[in-house]
Specification:
The chain contains four helices and four strands. The chain is of the alpha+beta class. The two termini are about 20 Å apart.
C-alpha cells in the first residue's frame, strides 16, 4: 500500500468515533475489533496490526494491507471476518476429532458453543459491512 493511501486510512481511523484511543508517548493509535493502527510521531510511519488474539502485536502482511484499499472500516471488517473464518476452521477440526475419538461430550459442547459465538460475531460484522455499501 502506498504511504498516501495509508495516511488516508489513518485519518479515517482518527475520525471513527467507535475506535478506542490508544495514544501514548511518541505515537498515535486507534483500535477497533482488535485491529490497531499506529502512527509514530517522529517518523510518521503508519502500521496496522492484526487481531490475532496473541499477547503481542503482529503487523499485517502485505496481502492483508490490501484489505484497506477501500478504507479503514472496510479493511477492519474484511480482516476480522478472515480471522473468524480461521477460528471456525480450527473449531470444526477439533469437533470432528472429538467425534471420531468418541471423547467426552463436554468438550464437544464447549467447542460447539464457541463455534456458535464466533458465527454470531461473524454475522454481526457481515451485517455492518453490508450496511456500509
Amino acid at each position: 500500500m502506498k504511504s498516501e493511501e495509508l495516511e488516508e486510512v489513518f485519518k479515517q481511523a482518527l475520525q471513527d468515533q467507535s475506535c478506542a484511543n490508544l495514544d501514548w508517548d511518541g505515537y498515535e493509535a486507534r483500535m477497533i475489533y482488535g485491529v490497531k493502527i499506529v502512527r509514530d510521531m517522529k517518523t510518521r510511519q503508519i502500521q496496522i496490526f492484526n487481531p490475532s488474539g496473541k499477547d503481542y502485536n503482529e503487523e499485517l502482511t502485505s496481502q492483508e494491507y490490501e484489505y484497506f484499499k477501500n478504507g479503514w472500516r472496510s479493511g477492519v471488517y474484511d480482516l476480522v471476518l478472515e480471522s473468524y473464518i480461521r477460528k471456525l476452521d480450527i473449531l470444526e477440526k477439533k469437533i470432528a476429532e472429538e467425534v471420531t475419538t468418541k471423547k467426552a461430550n463436554a468438550s464437544i459442547n464447549g467447542f460447539t458453543k464457541k463455534r456458535l459465538s464466533i458465527m454470531n460475531k461473524y454475522y454481526k460484522i457481515t451485517q455492518k459491512k453490508n450496511e456500509q455499501k
